[in-house]
Amino acid sequence: MSVLVWIEQSNSSPVGSSFEVLGKAREIAGALGTQSVAVLIGADAAAAETVRTYGADTVLTVSSPVLANYRLSAYVKALRKAVEAAGATVVLMAATVRGREVAAVLGSELDAGYAPDAVDLRVDDGKLVAVRSVYSNNILADVTFNSPVQVVSVRQRSFPMPEPGAASGEVKAVDAGLSESDVLEKLVEIKSTDTGEVSLTDASIIVSGGRGVSADPAKGFELVVQLASALGAAVGASRAAVDAGYIPYKHQVGQTGKTVKPDLYIAAGISGAIQHLAGMGGSKLIVAINKDGEAPIFEKANYGIVGDLYQVLPALTAEFKKRLGK
Ligand SMILES: Cc1cc2nc3c(=O)[nH]c(=O)nc-3n(C[C@H](O)[C@H](O)[C@H](O)COP(=O)(O)OP(=O)(O)OC[C@H]3O[C@@H](n4cnc5c(N)ncnc54)[C@H](O)[C@@H]3O)c2cc1C
After folding, report:
1. Centre of ligand 1 from the C-alpha of residue 215, in Å
2. Which ligand 1 atom sits closest to the C-alpha of 271?
3. How far apart are CA 71 and CA 178, in angstroms?
4. Fewest beta carbons within 10 Å, which of 75, 146, 230, 291?
């Protein structure tokens, strides 16, 4: 019995949200009276020393040239070997794009119960409970499991990022015995879309723009970007702004966009439709800028600024730059 966490890697470095999950996994393992195990999958085990600083009792490594780039069938096979080696009864991972599909396929192959996109975890009467946010954050559902193995993907930023400490935990290599013929997918080419922007789902601050920029969308979004860059924030948008072509879909926050949970969410020219709130309602602090004092976003906002975003955004940017010494 153990609690196993897949430490996902991007460009050969562990992703931060995996460590958020590992921090919680240690607590869950303690409550279940068992060990926490982290597993690294990739071409080599170079990141194992970094993983050791996050306090898992054991760090498993599954290394093979076949695992150099992420491919679903190969990673699920590697993870199955790790589950076997660790005797894991609870398998956790961050609910990233990869994490969600890996968890779903792994859960199905192991005949395990699967709770996707959990926002909290706890142990009641010696059993794991995964908490899921449903109906646009209006209900928190407790999910319990009847299966011997339980798989959960955890929404990014649901748990604090643990501080790394002294390296601990034994590193053990697991041989997955994988060859290219075991893998269903062939990788043809990788085209990077990395533009150096702050990722929405990992961001601690997000500045979003909506249809309120419609008087001059290019200028309006430039003002949103300027405030975001002064704050080191990611840029978000409402669906109305995306549908109007003001900004690409990857920035959309909401029911049919990304779900985010930053420490600070600044919404400019966004009315606060339920489908938008579904994606950002869990933000710790919400600031709304809207020229309509009756806009529904103000019911959700901690701070509201009634005003024209073309005046408010540059004023905020100038003030933040001054205070942050930029
Ligand atoms: C199935 C479904 C899924 C959906 N998914 C999503 C989703 O994922 N994300 C999402 O966002 N929406 C989603 N929507 C759409 C949602 O219902 C709203 O239509 C959308 O969120 C509205 O975007 P908005 O707030 O930018 O625009 P509007 O509702 O038009 O609001 C614009 C706001 O800007 C204010 N404003 C105007 N000019 C200024 C100015 N100069 N300064 C300051 N304020 C100004 C106005 O007062 C107004 O409140 C979905 C809808 C459906 C049916």
Report:
1. 15
2. 49
3. 13
4. 146
- Separation of alpha carbons 112 and 145, rounded Å: 9
Question: Residues 119-123: what's their mean pLDDT?
Answer: 97
What pTM was computed for the model? 0.85
**What is the CATH topology of the domain spanning 205-323?**
Rossmann fold (3.40.50)
Q: What percent of the chain has pLDDT over 70?
A: 99
Contact 295, 309 (CB under 8 A): no
Cα–Cα dist 123/129, whole Å: 6
Residue whose Cα lies nearest atom 11 of ligand 1: it is 238
Query: Distance from the CA of 55 to the center of ligand 1, in angstroms?
Result: 44
Residue of the CA atom closest to atom 47 of ligand 1: 292
Output the pLDDT for position 135. 79
Task: Report domain extents, the chain.
Answer: 2-182, 205-323
254 CB within 6 A, ligand 1: yes
pLDDT above 90 (res 304): yes
Tell which residue, 257, 189, 197, 259, has the closest CA to residue 233.
197
